[in-house]
Design goal:
By secondary structure, the chain is of the alpha+beta class. The protein folds into three domains: 34 residues, no CATH class; 128 residues, Electron Transport, Fmn-binding Protein, Chain A (Pnp Oxidase, Chain A, Roll); 32 residues. Helices cover 31% and strands 31% of the residues. The chain has six helices and eight strands. Strands 1, 2, 3, 4, 5, 6, 7 and 8 form an eight-stranded antiparallel sheet that branches. The longest helix has 25 residues.
Length: 198
């Protein structure tokens, strides 16, 4: 369903705030051809598998949210089928806050960003923690302690209006290489001028 996220996110208190702030008709604008839902298309697959990081939120037994950044080379976050996402859980500072939260409540939310294109994908899902690979022959990255499998219950593409444009080193590497080469040429030219006039 294209507005599966609204069933999760539009609680009575949220609807009350929508009414109070003049967007109470928002839910009525949702339709089956909206770009969102609970079944990942090729658009979502390409976006997810091209990402080099995402933010994930879990909730503790005391009700406090915990947000963490996860990063890796593009492809570390993978789509399986049309509603599952997996990633290798790499060893970090060994606090295991997310893992502990997920043991008590397996709900998770992800925000995946592409700052260069001002795109943002929100995902709600439920986690299964796979301590040992289902197939022992499946290689795991160095430092991977387990596999996290997220069954997607809803997703939604966000408005790009307030997303700052940023580029990673890989995304602006060619431009930086040109600027560095130009800078070196200018320095050489300046040195030559100073040597002639000195």
């Amino acid at each position: 369903m294209a507005y599966a996220f609204a069933k999760i996110a539009f609680t009575p208190s949220v609807r009350d705030q929508q009414d109070r702030n003049g967007s109470g008709s928002y839910a009525g604008l949702l339709s089956d051809d909206r770009s969102g839902g609970d079944t990942l298309s090729e658009r979502e697959r390409a976006f997810i598998e091209a990402c080099d990081g995402f933010y994930q939120a879990t909730v503790s037994e005391t009700g406090w949210p915990y947000v963490q950044f996860r990063g890796g080379k593009p492809g570390f976050l993978r789509v399986e089928g049309n509603n599952a996402i997996t990633y290798a859980d790499l060893r970090g500072n060994r606090q295991y806050i997310s893992l502990g939260n997920l043991a008590a409540d397996n709900r998770i939310a992800l925000i995946i960003m592409n700052y260069a294109r001002a795109e943002r994908l929100k995902i709600w899902g439920r986690v299964e923690v796979e301590e040992k690979p289902a197939n022992p022959a499946t290689p795991r990255p160095d430092g991977a302690e387990r596999c996290i499998r997220i069954t997607v219950e809803a997703f939604d593409w966000n408005c790009p209006r307030h997303i700052p444009r940023r580029l990673t080193e890989e995304e602006f590497g060619d431009e930086m290489a040109l600027l560095r080469a130009e800078n070196q040429q200018l320095r050489t030219h300046i040195n030559e001028i100073q040597a002639r006039s000195g």
